[in-house]
Amino acid sequence: MKVNANQGVEVKSNLVTGSDLLVQALEKAGVEVVFGYPGGAVLPIYDALHRNDTTFKHVLSRHEQGSIHAAEGYARVSGKPGVVIATSGPGATNLITGITDAMMDSIPLVVFTGQVAKQVIGTDAFQEADVMGITTPVTKYNYQVNDIADLPRIVNEAFHVATTGRPGPVVIDIPKSISETVTINDYEDDFYLPGYQPTVYPNPMQISKVTDELSKAEKPVILAGAGILIAGATEELKQFVNNWEIPVVTTLLGLGSYPGGDNLSLGMGGMHGTYAANRAIYESDLLINIGARFDDRLTGNLQHFAPNAKVAHIDIDPAEIGKNVETAIPIVADAKQALNVLLLQEVNRGDYTAWLDKIKKNQKEYPLWYNREDNPISPQWLIEQVYEKSNGEAVVTTDVGQHQMWAAQFYTFKNPDNWVTSGGLGTMGFGFPAAIGAQIAKPDKMVISIVGDGGFQMTLQELSILKTQNLPVKVVILNNEALGMVRQWQETFYEERYSHSLFSENPDFVKLAESYGIKGMRVEDEKNVPDALEEAFSHDGPVVIDCRIERQTCVYPMIAPGKGMHEMIGVTK
Amino acid sequence: MKRIIIATVQDRGGVLNRITGMLHRRQFNIESISVGASDVKGISKMTFVVEISDKQKLEQLTKQLNKQIDVIKVLDVTDKAIVTRELALVKVVANNQTRPEIMTLITAFRADVIDISKDSLMIQVTGKPEKVDALIGLLRPYGIKDLTKTGLTAFPRGYQPEQGFSELNNMSAHG
Ligand SMILES: Cc1ncc(C[n+]2csc(CCOP(=O)(O)OP(=O)(O)O)c2C)c(N)n1
């Protein structure tokens, strides 16, 4: 039976629906792709997507969580906001993990949720959820559209808020009665936000304090965070570092902000960071944090964090400065602008010779290490192989767990925006859908998703998208038949009581891939790894590779929870 | 330490929820909030009384408030010359003997009786929190049946002595 949804409404040609206004606003915002999933409350919006010849495409996921992580991956590598549409109630609540993840990692998203009709909001109507209430603590900002005349302005404003200052997710909740309303087509979209004026340019006085300190310092170190990537300031950082010859530690999310493998790069700091990196922070007398937020996984016990250092902190979010670490030189600014002003200062170095020698010695004496196995495969060696076979040029996304740390440690990120991982929230299920978004953003690049057998099973239904969108993502499963990171903590801190962390049954990942029409492979011996990776990476389409890795391997070195940067364990074999 | 903080906010949907939610989530200890219109349409003022343990926490509080999209200005007025006021309504047990006594007592506080019934009096008192609390303390022995307070609202005075500005106010200004 066919029923006309707009029965009784005479649609004149200059009239449009709220959903058409939304489509227009998205086009005006320059949206290229929307990740979404339909449902009752967004039927008018989906109808508008169908009726209009939109300039953007829509990617249908198999679960809203898949949509939003894909949008995050897209945003992280493209620098553009990720756009998501979901229906009311369960559609909206399925997005919460991704919204929170984006909030923690400063990823710009504009998320549209359907809502029940205005007349029934507050009555526990079918598929009603208090989206404003639920998302307020996990968004940069959120809106419910109460008047159709506000819709174009709200969309315009939302893109502005999501992408400027410290980026983050913005939710727009649209009642069905708004999206289906027939209306005229001439509303203004100008906005006025007197309370939102991010400080982009640094105070030059504060900047010269940094260079003053640099000329007095003997043991300076830079902590480079994702703020540098977001600001597009990697070239400026490189120049600043080269001018002053300061060693650089990157955060987990900041990998690639300074070329990994470079002379002055100490690699990642923090819980599973390198000895040289953590030691440099611990011993430094001047710590310059650019675009990192002193997360506890980086700092370890704050009492022992850079105890002798004067701290300078450049961040676009003033609330991050002084939040966890006392800061002598606060600089509120965009990382690129701050570095540009830093580059204008005269270079008048202190004597860092002894410091640089000591750091080199640490790097040489205490490199990252691992045991070689043959069968099953050593996971760290596998990551090195992935690096080699992709020429170190791939976009790598990961999930959360041991494989994530091994990827961070052993895939050397030389270039910016090639690394997508869930840092702040540590969201299992993130890595694979994020790769889908990354591949859509960079169709010509190789995108490799390194996942654990646990996390992959949280969102693997999105294999469907690889097929429907014809995306050549390479999924490398580090299969240890366990929730590896949980197992490691149980081994180390709970006397090997492996409570619910070992998988006795896993699906056959090869058959699983094949059932989605995707090439599936399995490798169990190290000797087969190079050929298998070559075959997978040269395959003209998506591949899932089930790599059987050594099951007891732990991630080292480590700063145990509650311990300080000087108390690393597992530094040597 | 107790701090009095005034936030000027854009009056948009959910703004109170947004701000109280943030304060709660970040474990700030709010003693009272009062919200009211300003003389500009669409702009409201919120006055918070918070119990804060140290300077670093206080700086976080003003920064987190400033970070809210709807917040236009944050002012810590604790160390300024300020006028603070709150209003309380007190329903106190009163009979023929105690009624005149209570009425005499409250005149010293310039409080008003706004309702009288056979066995109770309703009293309205306005002023600094100390004054309001002092009156409540004196009424308590008679038996308080019900009590409600508006929470504090505050204004900096027109004239500010130089030393009235604390270091922290200056810090949050450019934050
Ligand atoms: C959604 C979610 N649930 C639980 C956790 C806790 N957690 C952190 S790592 C981990 C194990 C991950 O196992 P797997 O995906 O197989 O990766 P591995 O550590 O073995 O590399 C778990 C359960 C989490 N981070 N996210």
From TrEMBL, chain A:
Gene3D superfamilies named in the record: 3.40.50.970, TPP-binding domain (3.40.50.1220)
**Family annotation (PROSITE patterns):** TPP_ENZYMES (PS00187)
Where is each Thiamine pyrophosphate enzyme N-terminal TPP-binding domain found? 17-133
Named in its record, the pathway it takes part in is: Amino-acid biosynthesis; L-isoleucine biosynthesis; L-isoleucine from 2-oxobutanoate: step 1/4; Amino-acid biosynthesis; L-valine biosynthesis; L-valine from pyruvate: step 1/4
Identify one Pfam family in the record.
TPP_enzyme_N
Boundaries of every Thiamine pyrophosphate enzyme central domain copy? 207-341
Q: Which cofactor does it need?
A: thiamine diphosphate; Mg(2+)
Q: Could you say which EC number(s) this protein's record lists?
A: 2.2.1.6
Cofactor-binding details, from the entry: Binds 1 thiamine pyrophosphate per subunit.
Q: Which GO terms describe its biological process?
A: isoleucine biosynthetic process; L-valine biosynthetic process
Residues forming the Thiamine pyrophosphate enzyme TPP-binding domain are: 399-547
**Keywords linked to the UniProt accession:** Amino-acid biosynthesis, Branched-chain amino acid biosynthesis, FAD, Flavoprotein, Magnesium, Metal-binding, Thiamine pyrophosphate, Transferase
* Superkingdom, natural source: Bacteria
Q: Please give the GO cellular component terms listed in this UniProt entry.
A: acetolactate synthase complex
**Catalysed reaction, written as an equation:** 2 pyruvate + H(+) = (2S)-2-acetolactate + CO2
The protein's name: Acetolactate synthase
Give the originating organism: Oceanobacillus oncorhynchi
- Give the taxonomic lineage as stored in the record: Bacteria, Bacillati, Bacillota, Bacilli, Bacillales
- Provide the gene name from the record: ilvB
Automatic annotation (TrEMBL), chain B:
Judging by the UniProt lineage, the source's domain of life is Bacteria
Under InterPro entries, the record lists:
Acetalactate_synth_ssu, Acetolactate_synth/TF_NikR_C, Acetolactate_synth_ssu_C, ACT-like_dom_sf, ACT_dom, AHAS_ACT, AHAS_small-like_ACT
Identify the residues that the record assigns to the ACT domain, covering every copy.
4-79
Signal peptide region: none
Q: Which GO terms describe its cellular component?
A: cytosol
Quote the Pfam families the UniProt record gives. ACT_AHAS_ss (PF22629), ALS_ss_C (PF10369)
Assigned EC number: 2.2.1.6
- Keyword Amino-acid biosynthesis on entry: yes
Q: What is the reaction catalyzed?
A: 2 pyruvate + H(+) = (2S)-2-acetolactate + CO2
Keyword tags: Amino-acid biosynthesis, Branched-chain amino acid biosynthesis, Transferase
Listed PROSITE patterns: ACT (PS51671)
MF terms from GO for this chain are: acetolactate synthase activity; acetolactate synthase regulator activity
GO process terms (BP)? isoleucine biosynthetic process; L-valine biosynthetic process
Pathway listed for it? Amino-acid biosynthesis; L-valine biosynthesis; L-valine from pyruvate: step 1/4; Amino-acid biosynthesis; L-isoleucine biosynthesis; L-isoleucine from 2-oxobutanoate: step 1/4
Role played: Catalyzes the conversion of 2 pyruvate molecules into acetolactate in the first common step of the biosynthetic pathway of the branched-amino acids such as leucine, isoleucine, and valine.
- Write out the similarity annotation: Belongs to the acetolactate synthase small subunit family.
Assembly: Dimer of large and small chains.
PANTHER family registered for this protein in UniProt: ACETOLACTATE SYNTHASE SMALL SUBUNIT, ACETOLACTATE SYNTHASE SMALL SUBUNIT 1, CHLOROPLASTIC
The protein in question is named Acetolactate synthase small subunit
Q: Which organism is it from?
A: Oceanobacillus oncorhynchi
Which lineage do the record's taxonomy fields give for this organism?
A: Bacteria, Bacillati, Bacillota, Bacilli, Bacillales
Supply the gene name: ilvH
